[in-house]
Give the backbone structure.
Amino acid sequence: MEARDIIIAPVLTEKSYVGIESKKYVFRVAKSANKTEIKNAVETIFGVSVEYVHTVNCRGKKKRMGRYEGYTPAYKKAIVQLKEDSKSIAFF
């Protein structure tokens, strides 16, 4: 897997914006990616140094549309903590 295949998109919510001050960034990542692959992908794409990575598997929520039921897609997200001497990521 290439680095661009592992990092799918940034997660831009109120809770993720609070972590930016302490250099914590949240990304939506590929389900098959592990912490080492995520760390290497963030370092190569953004040119920063990563201290640690936490991952969360998010289950799909049950939704209804009239009498029909279904689930939203499940996904995996990663919380990436940068080192203190590292630069911040520009687009956040």
